[in-house]
């Protein structure tokens, strides 16, 4: 007698169109605003080491604050608005209690009369679970509407606040306080001391994504719901009409 084969394929009987868990997370961030955020991260992915075991965690934050500017021996000459975008990707983390390290890029302006583009390295210290300390050091180039050429500089930054760890996706939301020192390396030796808020751009973009999908007729990832008429509902409607 031939023994009965009781093995059943794992996905036998499941519809072919059923999305996987990973596919869901990819589609979840497919709104128009998230595409702009991912474009800003493109420069960071060039530096991604392919042999890192832990999944990378990226973040893009809006910086809004104030800076005290000076030059030469005068550390402070005037106060100025400070704003811009800061993006980073951290590696070697498997959870909120792990250290992390990775590259960053930023684009900032002070008083809207200049632009500074920088990059460097960030190191995350898990001080309090989801409230880590992130220290960054790097270089930048400053261009302004003045008689000087593009000027190089160095920057040191401390971030303290909430930074999540997403076990299912590669984006980590972050909100916190930023303290930064920027020092020019040209003959004028410009310096600025910055205090700013770091606000997650994906959080800010959420209402825009919902509004864009509503104008476009809703998300295409959701199948339309077609009402079905059953015998029980027909009898209930008939009884209500009588």
Give a summary of the structure in a few sentences.
Helix content is 19%, strand content 44%.
Describe the fold and architecture.
- The protein is an alpha+beta fold and 242 residues long.
- The chain has 5 helices and 8 strands, in the order αααββββββββαα.
- The longest helix is centred in the C-terminal third of the chain and has 15 residues, at 201-215.
- It is elongated.
- The termini are far apart.
Q: Roughly what percent helix?
A: 10-25%
* Assigned CATH architecture: Beta Barrel
For the sheet with most strands, the description reads:
8 strands, antiparallel, barrel
CATH topology grouping? Porin
Shape type: elongated
Structural class of the secondary elements?
A: alpha+beta
Radius of gyration: 26 Å
Looking across the biggest beta sheet, what order are the strands in?
1-2-3-4-5-6-7-8
How many discrete domains? 1
Number of strands: 8
Strand content: 35-45%
Give the topology string: H per helix, E per strand. Answer: HHHEEEEEEEEHH
The low-confidence parts are: 6-29
What do the pLDDT scores average to? 79
CATH class label: Mainly Beta
Number of helices, where a helix is a run of at least 4 consecutive DSSP H or I residues: 5
End-to-end distance: 65 Å
């Amino acid at each position: 007698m031939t023994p009965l084969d009781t093995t059943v394929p794992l996905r036998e009987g499941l519809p072919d169109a059923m999305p996987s868990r990973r596919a869901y997370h990819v589609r979840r961030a497919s709104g128009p605003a998230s595409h702009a955020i991912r474009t800003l991260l493109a420069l960071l992915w060039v530096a991604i080491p392919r042999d890192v075991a832990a999944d990378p965690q990226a973040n893009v934050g809006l910086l809004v604050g104030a800076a005290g500017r000076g030059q030469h021996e005068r550390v402070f000459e005037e106060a100025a608005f400070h704003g811009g975008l800061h993006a980073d990707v951290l590696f070697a983390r498997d959870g909120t209690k792990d250290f992390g390290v990775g590259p960053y890029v930023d684009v900032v302006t002070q008083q809207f009369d200049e632009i500074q583009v920088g990059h460097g390295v960030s190191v995350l210290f898990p001080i309090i679970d989801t409230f880590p300390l992130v220290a960054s050091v790097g270089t930048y180039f400053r261009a302004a509407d003045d008689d000087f050429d593009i000027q190089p500089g160095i920057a040191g930054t401390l971030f303290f606040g909430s930074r999540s760890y997403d076990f299912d996706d590669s984006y980590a939301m972050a909100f916190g306080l930023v303290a930064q020192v920027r020092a020019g390396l040209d003959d004028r030796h410009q310096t600025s001391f910055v205090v700013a808020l770091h606000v997650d751009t994906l959080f800010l973009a959420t209402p825009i994504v919902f509004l864009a999908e509503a104008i476009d007729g809703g998300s295409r990832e959701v199948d339309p719901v077609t009402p079905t008429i059953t015998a029980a509902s027909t009898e209930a409607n008939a009884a209500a009409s009588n």
